Amino acid sequence: MGFFDKLFGRKKEQKVEEQKKEEQKLEQDELKEEVESIEQIVLEEVENIEQKLEQDEFKEDKQEEKEIIYTEKPKMEKRRFFTSLKDKLFKSREGLFGTLKNIFTGKSIVDGEMYEELEDTLVQSDIGIEMTLKIVKDLKVEVKARGVKKPEDVYPVLKDVLEGYLINENTKLDIQPGRMNIILVVGVNGVGKTTTIGKIASALVKDGKKVVIGAADTFRAAAVEQLEEWAKRAGAEIVKHPDGADPGAVVFDTLKAGEDKNADVVIIDTAGRLHNKNNLMKELEKINNIIKRKIGDQPYESILVLDGTTGQNGLVQARVFNEVTELTGFVVTKLDGTAKGGILFSISEELKKPIKYIGVGEGIEDLREFNSKEYIQAIFD
Ligand SMILES: Nc1nc2c(ncn2[C@@H]2O[C@H](COP(=O)(O)OP(=O)(O)OP(=O)(O)O)[C@@H](O)[C@H]2O)c(=O)[nH]1
Ligand SMILES: [Mg+2]
Fold first, then answer.
1. pTM, two decimal places
2. Please, which residues have CB less than 5 A from ligand 2, an ion?
3. Rounded CA gap, 94 and 153, in Å?
4. CA–CA distances in Å: residue 352 to residues 126, 161, 373
5. What is the SS3 assignment for 358?
6. Among 88, 79, 66, which Cα is nearest to 367's?
7. 304 lines ligand 1 (CB under 6 A)
8. Which one of 63, 80, 178, 200 is separated from 366 by 20 to 30 angstroms, measured CA to CA?
9. Nearest ligand, CA 303
10. 300 and 183 Cβ atoms separated by less than 8 Å
11. Closest ligand 1 atom, CA of 269?
12. Do 152 and 106 meet the contact criterion of CB atoms below 8 Å apart?
């Protein structure tokens, strides 16, 4: 066989191979959709039966249906709840972290060019220039220390280096029994504060906690309504004042209500629209003072919510809030909607405070406790 025959033969084989892969992917997607829609139908069916069972006439001879409910439904719901983080973060995997792998494959030596390519990719993923330089520097040290020679072996080292920046302590909310725990939620407008409060409240209520939410975002007309809706869905109580009221007064009343009702957790929503640093500082200082007057030295959570799709801007917000108030951690939202997600590494490394949760969708269950190992696994594997 001549050279060209061989070349064209190989090209043709490659093409067939590619086509086959594409078809397989399409089939898998279709199958997944089908399974999901079947699950939905079964769940709806089970809910129907469940409702009927509540009516007397169905109670006796429906043993079989009862069994479906008590064995299949919890199993399915559990599966749905844990819809793997991997699926939710698929954009991050396809985006930044998908291309990272390519840097290390198909090369024969670890050289400056490889590191430059890595730098370019990291900068594009919102990691920021400063952080990128730090990552590459730390990676080089680690590669040398481990005696790594092959480019493909650098990839797992990078994974470890990145994981090293994520804070692993106090990633859970500090909620203690026998006291009224307070979570103050701050952040600029539109980042997902109210949605996150709804999700956290729902998780806490499911865990058997009594939750009272304070609508201290009195700035925007629809804000209270939106929070009310979330509180209802979560099964939490809400304390509100009319639009334009003093947020401090709302906080005061919310803490009082929490105390009167023996709440386990009080969550406070705040306005994101305070135009300058000075205003922001004053407002938060006031709220913090009201809280401290109520609970004295007892620690409480001050959580900054950041939108994971806003990149370096998120880091700037984190710096400003960290200066004007004492933060205990972060929630990074909308990680389902970004191919970047590099912001997690920058804020952890720079501010040395834990990420408590990540938001991976608009639904009430689209919140995940943050675990650095799981996160790295989900985006790299
Ligand atoms: N895809 C996605 N959307 C989210 C997530 N979290 C919040 N959102 C959406 O982001 C938008 C803003 O959310 P809000 O909770 O109203 O944000 P906020 O910080 O309270 O905004 P202000 O009250 O205006 O300051 C809404 O459309 C939410 O549905 C998330 O994790 N993923
Ligand atoms: Mg809001």
1. 0.77
2. 193-194
3. 21
4. 18, 16, 17
5. strand
6. 88
7. no
8. 178
9. 1
10. yes
11. 20
12. no
